[in-house]
């Protein structure tokens, strides 16, 4: 897997479109498209911006080495999941199911908003 496929994987997994990532780091959508299609060698400034915004490891993005998430984000995720688990043990089975349904509903709503953006799907692959 090359840098283009890794960027697309990271961008998609973090819920970014090409436009939203480009806007977040201050470049044109074409820059992101060219990196994903491996038509241009990205500048280190752009790589740093992408890694910072997506919370990913630059070694993973550039060479495919190490974990995708930066250590800071992986640690944060571990703490968050531990806290969620701890709090869920204080709930009844029915309350746990209700919270899970709320999370799933939130995720569907988020996906719906992303799918209803002004960017046609065929223009920007997810």
From TrEMBL:
<dbReference type="Pfam" id="PF12844">
    <property type="entry name" value="HTH_19"/>
</dbReference>
<dbReference type="InterPro" id="IPR001387">
    <property type="entry name" value="Cro/C1-type_HTH"/>
</dbReference>
<protein>
    <submittedName>
        <fullName>DNA-binding XRE family transcriptional regulator</fullName>
    </submittedName>
</protein>
<dbReference type="InterPro" id="IPR010982">
    <property type="entry name" value="Lambda_DNA-bd_dom_sf"/>
</dbReference>
<dbReference type="GO" id="GO:0005829">
    <property type="term" value="C:cytosol"/>
</dbReference>
<dbReference type="GO" id="GO:0003700">
    <property type="term" value="F:DNA-binding transcription factor activity"/>
</dbReference>
<dbReference type="InterPro" id="IPR050807">
    <property type="entry name" value="TransReg_Diox_bact_type"/>
</dbReference>
<dbReference type="GO" id="GO:0003677">
    <property type="term" value="F:DNA binding"/>
</dbReference>
<feature type="domain" description="HTH cro/C1-type">
    <location>
        <begin position="7"/>
        <end position="61"/>
    </location>
</feature>
<keyword id="KW-0238">DNA-binding</keyword>
């Amino acid at each position: 897997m090359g840098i283009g496929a890794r960027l697309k994987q990271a961008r998609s997994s973090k819920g970014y479109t090409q436009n939203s990532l480009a806007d977040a780091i201050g470049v044109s959508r074409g820059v992101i498209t060219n990196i994903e299609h491996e038509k241009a060698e990205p500048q280190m400034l752009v790589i740093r911006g992408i890694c910072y915004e997506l919370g990913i490891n630059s070694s993973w993005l550039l060479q495919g080495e190490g974990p995708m998430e930066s250590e800071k984000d992986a640690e944060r995720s571990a703490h968050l999941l531990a806290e969620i688990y701890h709090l869920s043990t204080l709930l009844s089975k029915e309350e746990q199911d209700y919270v899970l349904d709320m999370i799933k509903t939130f995720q569907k709503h988020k996906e719906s908003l992303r799918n209803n953006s002004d960017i046609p799907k065929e223009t920007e692959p997810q």
